[in-house]
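Still learning. Any example?
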Amino acid sequence: MSIDTKTAGRVAKLARIKVEEADLPALAQEFTNILGFIEQLNEVDVEGVEPMTSVTPQRLYRRDDTVTDGDQQAAVLANAPDAREGFFAVPMVVE
């Protein structure tokens, strides 16, 4: 697939990249090279290859997905300038 200068200019405009008119042929060639590389990648047979999250095999730490209160109420309220009955106390702003 080949990209012409008009298409390269439109892509640059959509990406909000200012490209001088004289630089459009080089940009079009770069786009063409990128698309050629993508076409090469599409030729690779990846049937049966599982997706990877990392190049090194790692086992992810998993924990039970349970809802808790965090058990941090006292530590959080210790930073509050005014705390009452287990909540942050703030001045009334609406009368």
User: Anything to note?
Assistant: The CA atoms of residues 45 and 74 lie 57 Å apart. The two ends are 68 Å apart (CA to CA). The chain has a mean pLDDT of 90. The longest helix spans residues 24-42.
